[in-house]
Amino acid sequence: MTAIRKGRAAVAARLLVLAMTTSALSLPPGAASAQQTFTPREEEPEEFPDAPGREETFYFCTACHNFKLVAQQGMSRPRWDGTLDFMTERHGMPKLEGKDRDVILDYLEQAFPETTATPGWQNPFLKR
Amino acid sequence: MSGKIERSIEELYLEDPERADARIFGRKAGTNRRGFLESAGLAAVGAAVGGAIPFSQNMPAGLIPAAFAQDKGAAPAPAAAPAAPKGPIHLDFPGKDKGLVVIGEKPLVAETPEHLLNDDTTPIDKFYIRNNGQIPDEAKDPDKWVIKIDGEVNKPFEITLGELKSKYKAQTLRMVLECGGNGRSFFTPRASGNQWTNGGAGCAEWTGVRLADVLKAAGVKPSGIYTAHYAADVHLSGDPNRPTLSRGVRIAKAMEPESMIVWGMNGKPLPNIHGGPVRLLIPGWAGSASQKWLTRISIRDKEHDGPGMTGTSYRLAIKPMVPGDKADPKNFRILESMPVRSIITAPANGAKLAAGTRDVALRGASWAGDLSVQRVDISIDYGQSWQAAKLEKPKNKFDWQRWTATLKLPSDGYFEIWSRATDSKGKMQPHVAPNWNPSGYGGNPFHRIAVLVG
To answer: Which residues of A touch B273 (CB under 8 A)?
Structure first.
């Protein structure tokens, strides 16, 4: 158990470094003021479904974008896998390989699986 | 991993709609997959909705009654999680209506619920927001903003916004701008990307010059067949060498008299959040072709291949694919004209009407990409019968067409009102989002609202 936890912590630490390297890039001097008109809400990993790999996935993805973008998806593992490639090719995400990739794919697959009903239907009657 | 995840009605329906019917309401679909066989199930649904459900025999199995549908929000959280926002997050942004619903905060994306699109011209404060990258600082001296025209042209040049305003003839047109992914949330299985309902669209008065006039001044060579658009917004990663988005269109589309470089919106300087001081406006096509914070148009001798042009981005499957399958990028073509769509803008989805109300006045809008709308029909019985709405003419090409209708309801109770537009070539909105593709383009099913009378 301890070994697994240690392994997981090591993966998390590595991913965090990767993520921080990416986000460090995103803050050239004065860039912070560019967002003055809108401050994104601070998200926490605990808001999202609990499963192994949550923290790793959260901090890796939020180096660039909010996690809500992830959480509103629902995909099979092959599509999540393709999405990671897309993020690397299209958006310059550090390439995820080996165990790092497995940790994140495992979480995405478990937390945001493919869904068979449409999410796009809302009704204010429920707000009571 | 000890936290027990509570399952909402929505989750159950997401997993297996028919089983959810059976588990929650004891409702079973008939062999024709419609309707309730067990009256106890119907009573349970009715009691939960708070009213009788007329036409319930037509309600397809596995359809969450509108009144139950959960607000789209963060994913289901474990019971012990910190307070994740429940329901829609409303936009808090200077100069914008608080009724807009935030789809994502970074990048900032917000849609306009259909009932806030009830104005003939969408006010700036109600206009949807779509960003791909960071929001740039507001330009301090808009007239000094520089746009470069280059590539396959005889006379490449740079021009300031001030010069653009003085050198070319300006025009103002009321035109729909619509995100390419509008309607994505209606696909099953879920398509990837921002989960827009119908609110990634608006119709504003745009002031600017014809893109054709500017391109003609540069002299497009016969080899120039495609445009490539570039902008000042910075990629979310912060990498200054990575364009956030760079899309383009066929030269013929760029040369249409309604394709414009715009600096005015509803008579005001184009706001920064909408791409000010200057952006492209390529009406009828995916909004991403209408580059915000425009800095450069490069004419190319082949289809542009910038970020957002390749793979399955802004593309549709040529050979129809099994929903959810892995996509073969070779089987995709660029999404050009947006599909026909209608929305009911009044009453609002979820409106409660006084007991005894029988006449309901409806208002709505409809549009069809490069085409016009030839009719809009309304149903109050789940599509079994339809009545024609009164459809207005557009002010100019690419304007939306407002419509009105008066409904006669047969009783008190829960009603769903569906709208269906037909474009000028006879294509109608379908019942479900058609032609599944992994990034969810072309999702234009009927608009559906629910009202409760009494």
So the answer is: 37
